[in-house]
Amino acid sequence: MFFQPSPLLRSSVSPVIPPSISGGDEVIWCIETKDICTNAPPISADNLTMSSVAAAITIDETPTLSSGTSAISSGYTHSFSIGPTISGTGHTPCFSASNNSGPSHSPTQTNAHSTTYSTYLDLFEEEYLSDDTDLQEAISRSLESSTNESDSRMTLERIMEQIGSRVNSDSTVRFNIIRRNVWDGTSRAMGRSNFSPDKKVDVKFTDDYGTSEGAVDNGGPTREFFRLCLHEIKDKIGIFEGPSNAKVLTCNSKAMKDNAYFYAGQIMAMSIAHGGQSPCFLSELMYECLQKGPDNVKVKTEDITDEETRSQLQLILQAQTDSQLQDAVAQAASLISLAGHNVRITLENKQETALDLAHWYVLQRTRAPFERYVYI
After folding, report:
1. Which of 106, 294, 356, 371 has its CB 3.0 to 4.6 Å from that of 363, i.e. a possible disulfide?
2. Nearest-angstrom CA–CA distance, 262 and 320
3. pLDDT of residue 207
4. For position 264, what pLDDT does the model report?
């Protein structure tokens, strides 16, 4: 950096500048003068005094000298100002300097979309946030709504593309299926150590003697295979119960032992990823359970598929007197005992109790099968 005196200073004014200026340095300009000429009448060096009061300094993005000379720094920004002060009979040039040790950069513009408002709020410490709880709650709801709207913009086609992109076409898993016993061949193939649901599927149908049907799998046999598997899962292997279009999981110790819940969950996911049919037989409750988790789903007595169990809980809800309630509780004693409910049931808590028992029967009773089914 260099300093060039103003043209108005016609005699020798030699500022002594330090080699470098670092953060926090205070700079005093030493000026060797003899006779200084300004627009005012000349004054001698003996009468010259320097102002001890620093001139006001304004730091701009492009600092300038008051004489018009630009001072530009690539690393640290130093601003200079020259202002006249009155001393004796004339004007005395007053030099001051300041050192701003922060890096000087060109002005930058922040992209409005690069930082969300929620991230911006997180920068504030708690003590600076508003004490208005209603305001904070409104902001929180607004942010949640914005997030939900953003998530909902992903179309079904986009989701399917993401699922399909996981299929590894370089590796193949082969299923040799006998139509008379589809699930047996499927579970055997899935039990192999080299099986992976991400591999491309190749299906060959055979008869009871192992003779191939001869069809090359260009997609047709694979779709037929998944259609047959979904039919087996829905109605044959005993892991679902309920109406044909509203199935929920049920307990089956043999299926649990044979790992059928795990295989069924994999086949249903593979059918979607590999272009097969969608498993559209699940109940709304089951779908919500897959989406949110069993603990975050509310169950009604109508969701119970077993007629006897549903009737027992409805009797508890319909009881109007203590006598009716005690009779209903006696009929549901086995269910209450299995659920581990040890709170005395009264007219005041009968509704809460009935819903808790319904939740246990539909979701908590089948928690272990559910966790195998969703591949946990």
Report:
1. 294
2. 45
3. 81
4. 95
Domain extent, residue 58, equals 14-103
| Residues forming beta bridges with residue 76, ordered by sequence position | 103
So what's the pLDDT on residue 38? 47
Contacts 24+ apart (CB under 8 A), 27-35: 27/97, 27/98, 27/99, 29/95, 29/96, 29/97, 31/95, 35/11
Decide which of 250, 282, 314 is a domain's last residue: 282
3-state DSSP assignment of residue 248: strand
Q: How far is CA 167 from CA 63, 116, 149, 160, 283, in A?
A: 60, 34, 29, 12, 28
Burial 225-264 (b: 16+ CB within 10 A, else e): bbebbbebbbeebebbebeeebbbbbebeebeeeebbbbb
Q: Is residue 3 part of a domain?
A: no
- Residue 121 falls inside a structural domain: no
pLDDT at 325: 95
Write out the H or E segment, with its range, that includes residue 13. none
Orientation of helix 322-331 relative to helix 307-318, angle to 10°: 160
Distance CA 276, CA 261 (A): 19
What is the enclosing helix (H) or strand (E) of 362?
none
- Chunked into runs of 10 residues, the chain (376 residues) has average pLDDT values of 45 47 49 47 48 44 42 41 43 43 44 49 46 66 60 68 82 90 93 91 84 70 93 95 93 94 94 88 93 93 94 95 95 94 93 95 95 80
Are residue 177 and residue 253 in the same domain, yes or no?
yes
- Taking CA 10 as the corner, what is the angle to CA 5 and CA 16, rounded to the nearest 5 degrees? 40
299 in a structural domain: yes
> pLDDT value at position 13?
45
Q: Are residues 303 and 348 in the same domain?
A: yes
Instruction: Tell me which of 56, 83, 103 is where a domain ends.
Output: 103
Q: What is the pLDDT of residue 41?
A: 52
pTM for the model: 0.57
The domain total for the chain is 3
Query: Residue written as tokens 């195998």?
Result: 372
| Contacts of the segment 26-33: beta carbons below 8 A, 24+ positions apart | 26/99, 27/97, 27/98, 27/99, 29/95, 29/96, 29/97, 31/95
Any residues with CB less than 8 A from the CB of 260 and at least 6 apart, and which?
A: 187, 237, 238, 239, 252, 254
